[in-house]
């Protein structure tokens, strides 16, 4: 049985529903509320959590315990408004959440009163506190079939050996050594035609976004780089490199690419709902 044909009006209605700003809110129950969650021992701001207004504070604590690891009996809950101002302290576990009149966008702040809590002292977030396994060079050299021994064997056979060359060999490709760039103005001519604020397409993959930065980046190879804030999480950073901020982007949405990989012009965000059915619906409609 063939799939039903969707008219252009049907596709437009579906697009508006899924991509609209109220997605996830239009059909929510009147008795629920969407709240942010913060924690006294954690730096992370949790994703929004939907809670029923008829839930008791005790049941809310139980639900939050699965997200932050704090024992419900050691929790003190505070309700904050959108500006972080205190609206109420939720002292009574038997009260319903709705008694405190929370609204979408407010914050539930969890204060952990347990000094032995797993989250105390940053143990759930700061990986530097975790003891790492260490081995001395002498002990490592005594091991058999290690990467270090294999690497030294390859270098003894071929002084120009490197891992990239090895991978190219295994793929059956000819390895071409990368050209060392020592010109601080490398690709300056191409970069001169690209301006922050322009829409762009980045190769490979026609990754769409907006140019946010044009210039040199400390810590990257010499020459000019283009900072792009992608429309989708196709980048590798948030506009920073080695702790220095070059432009604003959401984590995973920013990236630095060479000017020859960037085309600027009329490159609107890719419409995931566009289909062949929409083409040819009218003489001038594309």
Automatic annotation (TrEMBL):
UniProt GO molecular function: alpha-tubulin binding; microtubule plus-end binding
Main localization of the protein described in the UniProt heading: cytoplasm
SUPFAM superfamilies, A to Z: Cap-Gly domain, Ubiquitin-like
GO BP, one annotated term: tubulin complex assembly
PANTHER family from the UniProt entry: DYNACTIN 1-RELATED MICROTUBULE-BINDING, TUBULIN-FOLDING COFACTOR B
Sequence ranges assigned to domain CAP-Gly in this UniProt record: 223-258
Name of the protein in question: CAP-Gly domain-containing protein
Organism (species): Chlamydomonas schloesseri
Gene Ontology cellular component annotations, sorted alphabetically: cytoplasm; microtubule plus-end; nucleus
The entry's keywords: Chaperone, Cytoplasm
Homology family: Belongs to the TBCB family.
SMART domains: CAP_GLY
InterPro entries: CAP-Gly_dom_sf, CAP-Gly_domain, TBCB_Ubl, Ubiquitin-like_dom, Ubiquitin-like_domsf
Record's subcellular location: Cytoplasm
């Amino acid at each position: 049985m063939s799939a039903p044909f969707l008219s252009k009006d049907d596709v437009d209605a579906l697009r508006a529903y899924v991509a609209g700003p109220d997605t996830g809110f239009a059909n929510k129950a009147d008795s629920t509320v969407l709240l942010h969650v913060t924690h006294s021992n954690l730096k992370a701001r949790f994703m929004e959590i939907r809670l029923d207004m008829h839930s008791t504070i005790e049941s809310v604590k139980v639900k939050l315990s699965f997200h932050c690891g704090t024992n419900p009996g050691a929790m003190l809950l505070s309700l904050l408004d959108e500006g972080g101002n205190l609206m109420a302290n939720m002292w009574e576990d038997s009260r319903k959440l709705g008694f405190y009149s929370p609204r979408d966008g407010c914050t539930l702040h969890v204060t952990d009163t347990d000094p032995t809590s797993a989250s105390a002292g940053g143990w759930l977030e700061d990986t530097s506190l975790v003891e790492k396994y260490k081995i001395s060079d002498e002990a490592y050299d005594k091991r058999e079939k290690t990467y270090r021994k294999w690497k030294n064997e390859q270098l003894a056979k071929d002084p120009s050996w490197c891992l990239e060359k090895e991978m190219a060999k295994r793929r059956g490709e000819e390895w071409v050594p990368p050209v060392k760039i020592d010109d601080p103005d490398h690709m300056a001519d191409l970069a001169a035609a690209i301006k922050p604020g322009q829409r762009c397409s980045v190769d490979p993959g026609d990754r769409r976004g907006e140019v946010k930065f044009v210039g040199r980046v400390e810590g990257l190879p010499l020459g000019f780089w283009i900072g792009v804030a992608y429309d989708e999480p196709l980048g590798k950073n948030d506009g920073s490199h080695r702790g220095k901020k070059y432009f604003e982007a959401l984590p995973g949405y920013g990236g630095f690419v060479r000017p020859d990989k960037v085309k600027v012009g009329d490159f609107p965000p890719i419409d995931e709902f566009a289909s062949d059915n929409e083409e040819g619906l009218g003489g001038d409609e594309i």
